[in-house]
């Protein structure tokens, strides 16, 4: 009897193991099938559209790399099933330490940095891909998650700097500063050496966040001016009390600024109207004086005109 029970238990355990292995193999086969199906679709599309062989090779190589790194699925799509708070905690775990090391964000509040990390997006670049080229508008900051990026001076065709894991580039691009000699365009190009995973922060997102964090806005502007001044990239004679860009202001602050501007315009119009009235009164007085003088000497003026003493 005991032998029968032992045999049954052994069979059940063996069946469980075989079933587990079968599930794993089936799941792996499904992943392989899905990958091959996508790959075949991409190959067919490129062949049908007569894409050049060089680009086809790059696309296939990039797609294979993304599959090997399990990055064919969108991060946001995967995380959307989680509560927003958990999504935020994951983002903080990934990016907060890096952001705290960025000089531009030093002494900023935890709440502001939390909002910033929620808006960071991931992008994969293949070998020799340009993240941007010299002359393009500067509106993004880059954080290297994995890989190597090379800063290229296009004028001299030389590599000015190399960025590796954890490095940041372009932090001054996410905030608008009057007197910034760097301007609004890129002075250099940024190129990926090999495959690179990069996190990107956009200027528009930072401006939107700053609308709700006025204290951090002042801190960020102060940090940016200090950084530019230390690099001799801030123009002299810039009034730091000048108005901040409207994109960084909250709706209430924008309305308040508009109200003040309307008040200034109203004051200018009142001054112009008062000046016009004063000038008009003076002109009327002069015209009246001329009319009286003409009435008094009308006969003499007429005779002078007839005699040719007065010419028009």
UniProtKB/TrEMBL annotation:
- Write down a Pfam family by its short name: cNMP_binding
Question: A cellular component term (GO) from this record?
Answer: intracellular cyclic nucleotide activated cation channel complex
Q: Where in the cell is it found?
A: Membrane
Q: What is its main location?
A: membrane
> What residue ranges are annotated as transmembrane?
7-28
Q: Signal peptide position in this chain?
A: none
Q: Which domain of life is it from?
A: Eukaryota
Membrane topology term reads: Multi-pass membrane protein
Q: Which UniProt keywords apply?
A: Ion channel, Ion transport, Ligand-gated ion channel, Membrane, Transmembrane, Transmembrane helix, Transport
The Cyclic nucleotide-binding domain covers 104-227
**What GO terms are given for molecular function?**
cGMP binding; intracellularly cAMP-activated cation channel activity; intracellularly cGMP-activated cation channel activity; protein-containing complex binding
Question: Sorted alphabetically, which InterPro entries does this protein's record hold?
Answer: CNG_cation_channel (IPR050866), cNMP-bd_dom (IPR000595), cNMP-bd_dom_sf (IPR018490), RmlC-like_jellyroll (IPR014710)
- What protein name is recorded for this chain? Cyclic Nucleotide Gated channel
Q: Which species does the entry assign this protein to?
A: Trichostrongylus colubriformis (Black scour worm)
Q: What does UniProt list as this organism's lineage? A: Eukaryota, Metazoa, Ecdysozoa, Nematoda, Chromadorea
């Amino acid at each position: 009897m005991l032998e029968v029970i032992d045999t049954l238990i052994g069979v059940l355990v063996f069946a469980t193991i075989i079933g587990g292995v079968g599930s794993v193999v089936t799941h792996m086969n499904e992943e392989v099938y899905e990958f091959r199906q996508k790959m075949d679709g991409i190959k067919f599309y490129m062949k049908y559209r007569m894409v050049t062989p060089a680009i086809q090779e790059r696309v296939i190589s990039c797609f294979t790399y993304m599959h090997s790194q399990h990055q064919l699925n969108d991060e946001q799509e995967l995380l959307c099933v989680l509560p927003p708070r958990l999504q935020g905690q994951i983002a903080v775990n990934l990016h907060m330490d890096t952001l705290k090391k960025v000089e531009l964000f030093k002494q900023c509040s935890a709440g502001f940095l939390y909002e910033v990390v929620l808006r960071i997006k991931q992008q994969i670049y293949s070998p020799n891909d340009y993240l941007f080229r010299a002359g393009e508008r500067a509106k993004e900051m880059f954080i290297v998650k994995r890989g190597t990026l090379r800063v290229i001076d296009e004028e001299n065709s030389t590599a000015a700097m190399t960025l590796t894991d954890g490095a940041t580039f372009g932090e001054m691009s996410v905030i608008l500063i009057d007197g910034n000699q760097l301007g609004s365009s890129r002075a250099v190009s940024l190129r990926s050496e090999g495959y690179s995973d990069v996190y990107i922060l956009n200027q528009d997102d930072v401006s939107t966040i700053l609308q709700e964090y006025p204290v951090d806005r002042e801190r960020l502007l102060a940090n940016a001016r200090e950084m530019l001044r230390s690099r001799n990239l801030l123009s002299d004679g810039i009034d730091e009390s000048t108005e901040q860009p409207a994109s960084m202001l909250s709706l209430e602050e924008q309305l308040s600024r508009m109200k003040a501007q309307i008040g200034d315009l109203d004051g200018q119009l009142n001054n112009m109207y008062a000046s016009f009235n004063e000038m008009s009164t003076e002109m009327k007085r002069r015209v009246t004086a001329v009319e009286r003088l003409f009435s008094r000497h009308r006969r003499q003026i007429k005779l002078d005109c007839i005699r040719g003493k007065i010419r028009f």
